[in-house]
Amino acid sequence: MGEAVSALEKYDLTARLPSVLTHGVICREGRMASQDSVPQRVYRGQPDKRRAIARAARAVFGQQGYTGASVDMIAAEAGVSKRTIYNHYTDKEQLFLSVILEGSAEVAETHTQIADRHLRKILDLEEDLVAFALEWASSPAAFAGHFALVRIIQSEAARIPPAVLEAWQDTGPRAFQRELARYLSQMADRGLLVFEDADTAAMHFNLLTFVSVAQRSFYGAIMLHESDITELVIGGVKAFLCLYRPEPGARSASPSTSRGRASR
Amino acid sequence: MGEAVSALEKYDLTARLPSVLTHGVICREGRMASQDSVPQRVYRGQPDKRRAIARAARAVFGQQGYTGASVDMIAAEAGVSKRTIYNHYTDKEQLFLSVILEGSAEVAETHTQIADRHLRKILDLEEDLVAFALEWASSPAAFAGHFALVRIIQSEAARIPPAVLEAWQDTGPRAFQRELARYLSQMADRGLLVFEDADTAAMHFNLLTFVSVAQRSFYGAIMLHESDITELVIGGVKAFLCLYRPEPGARSASPSTSRGRASR
DNA sequence: GGGACGTTACACTGGCTAGTGTAAGGACGC
DNA sequence: GCGTCCTTACACTAGCCAGTGTAACGTCCC
């Protein structure tokens, strides 16, 4: 896992990655590739097999860890011969990296849906934020398979090629944090919140709710009582609102801060 | 790592663990053991060898991960024959668990010293908190070896015997969080802070400073610019003070909260 | 029919690993 | 000097695993 990897082209999903990383050469849809005519990413093998392998790999890596998962296990889980796996992926490592990139995008999308459901229309700010944060913070328990992968990534971070790690963060956690910042900005526009920097506010919300639960549950590895989650989330939202709710007497959407608000 | 382990007696440092877990049977100093006369924990082998093994194990596990570290590597690093390791520890697993319990206690102690240095005498609240949090949040980079272990623990959490995991949390992170809560209480007594629950306040401080940095750096796996750390820490302390600093006009050490302060 | 391609079962290599067995030597106490 | 304990070097078992080679089979398209 430690070898230098200069490009991400080896891994799937390059189209979803920042174009800087893909060098604009390989593009899933694109005609504008700067090379000859390579309109479509070419994969060997049948797509359904590839999908089965990816799904199985995610599950087995999640349960067993990177080193604990053998390619034979993954093959069995996928209902596919081991040889076929090596027909689709060059390496166990490449399979792993490819899988984590897929997973992060997928989960970020799921989280975005959760945010959509709770934050698109704000009726009662605190209530809606709590409902959102509850579902969000419960997702590690719900998507146990994915977050087992997240834990592996965290522990292997030093051994994962930096470009891949960067791409993973950018399609996954950071993508969603941007989305969250967007929602918070909307609320600020309506005068429901006050802050200078939406990204900082989103980070604080993340820390005070999601991370506070994730921290305690080891990102879903340990089961928490629902009451504990609720307590943490409610406390976190209250703290967040204490930080960013407009002063009772202040004009709505005040341009600056009278008290020393959290700033970057 | 998944086998049921009913007692912690197999592992070192039982004397430092909560007595519930040691069943009061084995006690480093104790004469009051409920069994015959087992006044001293009996270790086979010479203590200096044991220490060399433990130190080497910590280093190698940290660099290579649990599965990546072979017992031969550890033996070589310790300057000891492999046979000697198996003379001191029954298992690779027992060696690992023993090592993480030692490490957590040691780091909690180091963190306590950092807190002592910065928080025993408060001159300027914000300044002192920032100085403390900076050093604290930088420790994952400083004690790379230990926090590599922490990352492994987090990723293996589901496979570590719950009793050991509990003991690890209790001698490590939680022990220090209690210490931090104690310091915050002192500040509250002096009217510098206002809160209902010191433990919640300590958790929020932890989240807003230490975790915020740890999150971004993958617990020390990724190097961060010092300016980034500083920025995160200062923002975190500002947010914390915004949450828990007494209202400008309020009487010092007010018993209750007028605004909706963060509560449990 | 025939070629190209993907898949499969299976055997196999080479390498690494946890853990053991053993005989020999060193240190220490008596 | 003698016994006990600890350590060491080394060989060894038994097993797992990544990755390859190969021959056979099916399918789809021409």
Spell out the blueprint of helices and strands.
Two copies of one chain form a homodimer.
Chain A: H1 19-22, H2 47-64, H3 71-78, H4 82-88, H5 92-119, H6 125-142, H7 144-156, H8 162-171, H9 173-189, H10 198-217, H11 226-244
Helix pairs in contact in A: 2-3, 2-5, 2-7, 5-6, 5-7, 5-8, 5-9, 6-10, 6-11, 8-9, 9-10, 10-11
Chain A binds a DNA duplex (30 and 30 nucleotides) through helix 4.
What does this structure look like?
The structure is a homodimer of 264-residue chains. With 264 residues, chain A is mainly α. Chain A has 11 helices and no strands. Chain A has helices at residues 19-22, 47-64, 71-78, 82-88, 92-119, 125-142, 144-156, 162-171, 173-189, 198-217, 226-244. In chain A, helix 5 packs parallel to helix 8, helix 6 crosses helix 11 (226-244) and helix 8 (162-171) runs parallel beside helix 9 (173-189). The interface between A and B is large, with 37 and 38 residues.
